[in-house]
Every structure is written in structure tokens, then in C-alpha cells.
From TrEMBL:
Name of the protein in question: Bacillithiol biosynthesis deacetylase BshB1
Organism: Sphingobacterium arenae
Pfam family, one: PIG-L
Gene it is expressed from: bshB1
InterPro entries to which the protein is assigned, alphabetical: Bacillithiol_biosynth_BshB1 (IPR023842), GlcNAc_PI_deacetylase-related (IPR003737), LmbE-like_dom_sf (IPR024078)
């Protein structure tokens, strides 16, 4: 299946937190959208790889994506090496997305920035025809997406693009809260409370969306960074 938009992030729940509204918006617009998780998030303080997978499936259903796949890289210990790059190249060539959104350039969690660099390098290499990859016994064609963007995660980074997600905020929030082991957890839970499980974290997530929205005079928005200058054909399409 060829995708219009692929959100390729390192942990299950990164896609929903960083781009859940954007995903829902373009699914509603009829675009083919998929989520690729690089790892199972198995090092997380709360939950297990199995519960994270179940939660990711529920979140994907809420957002209505056509594809959700996990590449099974090692949480916390993946490296930007040939083996990891080839795993990502196969996924890119398999789905041939026009746009890829990945993790923040730099963030509180070291996996985020490292994953962003890994995906960026793999996207470039995916376009080189002399790098041979095989899927289901067939040699894959070289392919490079037209655009890569990065989400803004815990650490605030000045966005290059701000997208109105007001009509899709509730859907985004529901997709995040599908991760019941990770977010909005009461203090009497058996597992340790974490930075993100505290209900205040969801309040700050809503506040970030409102802050970004104010910049373009809407209620809620998501922001993205770009590694390159972005060109437009029609400045009247800009707010």
C-alpha cells in the first residue's frame, strides 16, 4: 500500500502525542496514513511490550490509520548503523510515503533525537538505487519521500509549520489516553508514577496545543520543524 503520510517515531505513543491531530485530520481528508513504530517501548517504567502493543492497536483504531507496524529495533540501545538503516529503508520503500513525520530533533528523552537522525539518514539512503533491499522475495525500487518533518515533543522547539487541529483535538486526546498504562494514571496504581503518567502531563499537552494554536488564531494546533527551507506555489494558501 502506498501511503500519503507516514509517521515514523521511536516509541508507541510518540506518534499520537506529537502528531495525533495531524494524523486524524488527513485520515478524515481521505489520505492514506500509516504509523511505523521503531521500537516496542520495552524499557518503559510502566506496562510491558505486550500492553504497549495492545494500546498502540487501540490508538490506531481511534485515529483510523490504514497501517500500523512495529520494526522491532531495541528500545534505548538502537544505533544509527547500517543494520538499523536498512530496516527503515525497507519500510520506506514498502509504503513509499510522500511525507514522513518523525521524532523531535532534540528532546528530553535521548531516543527521540537519535531516532530523528536515524530516520533522516535512512530516508536519504532509501533513494539510492545501488542500495539493494528485498521485500517478500522481490527487489525493492529506490524511493525517497518528498518531505520530512519532525514533531515537537517535551522540549519546546520553534516550529517551521503550525497546523490547525482544532476539529481533531478530542480524537488526538482519545488516542493518547488509549495508552492506559502510560498516561493519566491515578496515584493508587500498583506501578510507579512517572513524569508522563501524572495527570498534569496531559494538561501540559493540551496547553502546548493551545499555545501553538494562538500563533495562528485557532484553538488547538500541532507544530513541526523542517531540516530544509520549504517552498510554496501559492502564498495565499498561508494563514
Amino acid at each position: 500500500m502506498k501511503l500519503d503520510l507516514m509517521v515514523m517515531t521511536v516509541h508507541p505513543d510518540d506518534a499520537e502525542l506529537g502528531a495525533g491531530g495531524t494524523i486524524a485530520k488527513y485520515v478524515a481528508a481521505g489520505k492514506k496514513v500509516g504509523i511505523i513504530d521503531l521500537t516496542q517501548g520495552e524499557l518503559g517504567t510502566r506496562g510491558t511490550a505486550e500492553t504497549r502493543q495492545q494500546e498502540a492497536t487501540r490508538a490506531a483504531d481511534i485515529l483510523g490509520v490504514q497501517v500500523r507496524e512495529n520494526l522491532g529495533l531495541r528500545d534505548g540501545f538502537f544505533t544509527n548503523d547500517e543494520e538499523s538503516q536498512l530496516v527503515i529503508i525497507r519500510a520506506i520503500r514498502k509504503y513509499q510515503p510522500e511525507i514522513v513525520i518523525t521524532n523531535a530533533l532534540d528532546d528530553r528523552h535521548p531516543d527521540h533525537g537519535r531516532a530523528s537522525k536515524l530516520v533522516n539518514d535512512a530516508l536519504f539512503l532509501s533513494g539510492l538505487r545501488r542500495i539493494e533491499t528485498v521485500y517478500e522475495g522481490q527487489i525493492q525500487e529506490a524511493f525517497r519521500p518528498r518531505l520530512q518533518l519532525q514533531v515537537i515533543q517535551d522540549k519546546y522547539i520553534q516550529p517551521d509549520i503550525i497546523l490547525d487541529i482544532t476539529d481533531f483535538w478530542q480524537q488526538k486526546e482519545q488516542s493518547v489516553l488509549a495508552y492506559t498504562t502510560q498516561f493519566n494514571v491515578s496515584s493508587d496504581d500498583d506501578e510507579p508514577q512517572t513524569y508522563i503518567s501524572n495527570p498534569a502531563f496531559m494538561e501540559s499537552t493540551r496547553g502546548r496545543a493551545a499555545e501553538l494554536g494562538r500563533n495562528i488564531q485557532v484553538k488547538y494546533a500541532e507544530g513541526f520543524t523542517a531540516r530544509k527551507l520549504l517552498g510554496v506555489q501559492d502564498i495565499f494558501q498561508l494563514l
